[in-house]
Automatic annotation (TrEMBL):
Organism for this UniProt entry: Sodalis glossinidius (strain morsitans)
Domain DUF927: 8-140
Domain of life: Bacteria
Pfam families for this protein: DUF927
Protein name per Swiss-Prot or TrEMBL: DUF927 domain-containing protein
InterPro entries: DUF927
Length: 330
């Protein structure tokens, strides 16, 4: 089977040649969960989000992203770039509504400041309000998408290289997950042979499975939404209450992976284990506190440490003490 727009092979050939070699590798399976979830979150009326896999070079980041993207088409043809403006990325998000946005490695030419702005714009789901030359406003663009990104460092550190601090909302919308290298090589002797086999597979089998998946969701919308709600109920007891939005994101990944077994042929428990593995890796990095509160406390402590007695008098106020601490004017 060969489609005119980024489709080669059949859903069965993608399952037997690509998905089969992915099974047993948590990060790759989580990436596939994200691409399966892209058209699902709209049915469940959940917000869009992204996953940023990071690790040092030669760790399988590109293979992981390409394997996942191959569900919908030729990975090289689908890949977008962080190298651009927030408005440009928002326009792409609008064009990829209820679909996947695969983004290239964040460190390749992308400016940390632009990436910071783009991250917030991308997952905010609403475009810039602009006036029309004939009067009134242009139609406001809205979208809901799932993005996959890779890099050698997590997004917080990358943006910090420009001297900027990542907002808590960005850390929640774009999940920074340390990449777990492939550990299940199937019939291959090592990771290199396994990666080469995957590359050969996704270059020959792509696109058809994604079309079949979208058709399945269109024909089974109530079942799909029910699967998401069931997963949300399960994860709600595991995720801290102040991580409310994360329930929807993790649940969407798990529900997509379980429903998507008709495409992948994977074991049910293996699917659950892959999502749990990636969630644990994210929590170990992100922590279990409320990031917005933590950032407020950090800023307050930094301000007090920087200015201290020069701006604040001690509780047992003594004017002589404060005068002795003043820095003389030159």
């Amino acid at each position: 089977m060969h489609c005119t727009r980024g489709c080669h092979g059949t859903p069965e050939s993608w399952r037997d040649n690509v998905a089969r070699l992915v099974e047993g590798n948590p990060s790759m399976m989580t990436a596939v969960a994200a691409v399966l979830a892209a058209p699902l979150i709209g049915l469940a009326e959940n917000d869009g989000f992204g996953i940023h896999f990071f690790e040092q070079s030669s760790s399988g980041k590109t293979t992981t992203a390409n394997v996942a993207s191959s569900l919908y088409g030729n990975p090289d043809a689908l890949r977008l770039t962080w190298y651009g403006t927030a408005l440009g990325l928002a326009n792409e998000a609008s064009a990829h509504n209820d679909a996947l946005m695969p983004l290239d490695e964040v460190g390749q030419g992308a400016d940390p400041h632009s990436v910071s702005q783009s991250t917030y714009a991308l997952f905010n789901g609403v475009g810039k309000l602009q006036g029309a030359k004939e009067g009134g406003n242009r139609d406001l663009k809205r979208w809901r998408t799932i993005a996959i990104s890779t890099g050698e460092m997590d997004m917080e550190i990358f943006i910090a290289t420009s001297g900027r601090k990542v907002k808590a909302g960005q850390l929640v919308r774009l999940l920074n997950i340390p990449l777990c290298k492939a550990v299940c090589f199937h019939e291959y002797a090592n990771g290199k042979q396994h990666a080469d086999a995957l590359k050969a597979a996704y270059q020959q089998h792509y696109g058809a499975a994604g079309r079949a998946w979208v058709k399945y969701l269109a024909d089974h919308q109530q079942d799909a939404v029910a699967a998401v709600r069931t997963a949300e109920a399960s994860w709600r007891s595991l995720i801290p209450a102040n991580y409310g939005e994360q329930v929807h994101r993790v649940a969407a990944l798990e529900a997509a992976l379980l429903l998507g077994r008709i495409m992948t042929g994977w074991d049910e428990q293996g699917c659950r284990d892959a999502i749990q593995h990636s969630y644990n890796a994210w929590v170990n990095l992100f922590g279990t506190g409320n990031k917005e509160y933590e950032q407020i406390i950090e800023q307050a402590e930094a301000f007090l440490s920087a200015y201290g007695i020069s701006r604040f008098a001690p509780l047992d106020y003594n004017e002589k003490y404060t005068q002795s601490c003043r820095i003389p004017r030159l």
